[in-house]
Amino acid sequence: MDMEVPEKQTSSYRYWVRETTADAAPLPVPKKLSDDDVSKQPSQNSIGSVWNKAGTWEEKNLSKWATARIKELLTSVGSLEFSSGKAEVTDVSRCTGDAFLVTVRNKKRVGYTYEITIDVKGEWLVGDEKKKLKGHLDIAEFSYGELDELEVTVKIDEGKDLQQEDKLSVSQDLKSFVQPIREKLMQFEQELKER
């Protein structure tokens, strides 16, 4: 039996990289750029690290700076005078949280979440005598853009011998610190955005 061997067909498809013809464009020749050529290149205005020219995701922890700055700003609040006394901020005894700067698609975004306790001391006219009192202002978790809703809880440390109405009066006076605290935290937010 005679078997016929089929003739090998040539493909009509030609892969252009493997074969070059006379009418093909010449291959590119690498050229080293001089310093002058590099300086003429348009600069890319990217935000963030040098390695992140495309401005993709990059997160930077600013907690150390933010904690120190919040403490510094809030201790500078100073003192307030009330109808029956005066009080001053003595220390920021607790300042816990985190702050960060995120670069996404070449746009900077900042954020933070903190909890603070501010120590205060003051002197009030209670009845006919002046009483020196200490206490603290607790500000539970607050975040970027939420300063309008800032809430302060007042705790008086040395008010055992005070009547309830006197404690309420002193607490109301100490809640007056909310506005100067809010202003200092707004200043902090602005400084954080500019970093």
Annotation, overall tally of beta strands:
6
Number of DSSP helices?
4
Strand content: 25-35%
Mean pLDDT: 84
Give the name of the CATH architecture. Super Roll
What is the SS-derived class? alpha+beta
Low-confidence spans: pLDDT under 50, at least 5 residues? none
Helix coverage percent of residues? 10-25%
- The shape is elongated
Report, as a whole number of angstroms, the end-to-end distance: 89 Å
State the name of the first-level CATH class.
Alpha Beta
Rg to the nearest angstrom? 34 Å
How would you spell out the order of helices and strands?
HEHEEEEEHH
Protein name: Activator of Hsp90 ATPase AHSA1-like N-terminal domain-containing protein
Family: Belongs to the AHA1 family.
GO cellular component, one term: cytosol
Biased composition (Polar residues): 40-49
